[in-house]
């Protein structure tokens, strides 16, 4: 069978929400140059991500890959948790 060799699109972002079951929302921050004024402006993209084992928590840095649509808003899946968020201890 002819299998197409497809490079997976993988991006890194920070988890901003993990309220749903098996779902997280991540933010990818980047800077883009303004076309007219040349100033670099901060931009943010939010992605819905499928997290099968509920392993990512809010504030974690994660790696996600593009995949088939899991739902209307989710077409990315969690690859790995790169860095855990620092837990705040209550005094």
From TrEMBL:
GO aspect biological process, one term: translation
SUPFAM superfamilies assigned: Nucleic acid-binding proteins
Recorded GO MF terms: rRNA binding; structural constituent of ribosome
Keywords assigned: Ribonucleoprotein, Ribosomal protein, RNA-binding, rRNA-binding
InterPro entries the UniProt entry points to: NA-bd_OB-fold (IPR012340), Ribosomal_uS17 (IPR000266), Ribosomal_uS17_bact/chlr (IPR019984)
GO CC field: cytosolic small ribosomal subunit
HAMAP family: Ribosomal_uS17_B
Similarity comment: family membership: Belongs to the universal ribosomal protein uS17 family.
NCBIfam families, A to Z: PRK05610.1 (NF004123), uS17_bact (TIGR03635)
Record's protein name: 30S ribosomal protein S17
Organism per entry: marine sediment metagenome
Lineage, broadest ranks: unclassified sequences, metagenomes, ecological metagenomes
